[in-house]
Design a protein that fits this description.
alpha+beta, 274 residues, 5-stranded antiparallel sheet, Jelly Rolls, globular, 4-stranded antiparallel sheet, 2 domains, Arc Repressor Mutant, subunit A, single chain
Amino acid sequence: MDRLSTLLKHFNLQASTFHQGGFCGITPVHGEHGFGHAHLLRSGQLTLIDKRGQRIELAEPSLILAVRPQAHQLLASEADDAQLVCATLHFDGGADNPLTLALPDFLIMPLRELQGLNGTLDWLFAEAFGDECGREVILNRLFELMVIQLLRHLMARRTIDSGMMAGLAHAQLSRALVCIHDQPQRNWSVAALADRSGMSRASFAAHFRETVGITPADYLANWRISLTQKRLREGRPIALIADEVGYESPSALARTFRRKVGTSPKEWLLQNRP
């Protein structure tokens, strides 16, 4: 069972490296244009100031990850001798897709805690501070690989205790979530999902709501709407989308879309054209 591939297929990540080397001064990051950011502190010291003005001092090699647009500042003096590699992160389907919404505003982790990422991080730093040809393209791919490996790490260690990522980290609930992700067109009942999870209907429904935060029916509807939004951005007609995501007609999809989003699909697309 692959818990990530369908998510990453629908909401693919593209990274673009914009800084590698020494860092000194104050850099405001406004979180504009729907981009997230990844900052890797290779050595030295760095201060992160988040959108609430909270200061977080980093005194060892660390990762700062904001998968959604988040205003923040990076601060270092000459004496801090900070060495940084930074990239913007863009997900297909927009900044507020199910994958990014399942993660906190900021993830800040010492690199020593990311043992499974050592090979990728060593390669990334070697490229960033080397001068081989093609390094920009390689750096972009390595940032993308790093994020995927980080998602694996978060699930394996059950770092996130609620929402979709917590559900995917759960040995039984993850089976139901993968079924929904892989086959959104199916009319999944609670009983069918419970059976896939190897749980009783009552136990499954209670554990799902406690862990993921919503009912299985709401999760299925939300997933279908997220796929609809992505496909609307891609220019697909609503009639085809309705069939692909499990609605008997475009009007049935439009009713659910308005209930969940607050506007019709057409109005939403006008406001959110890529």
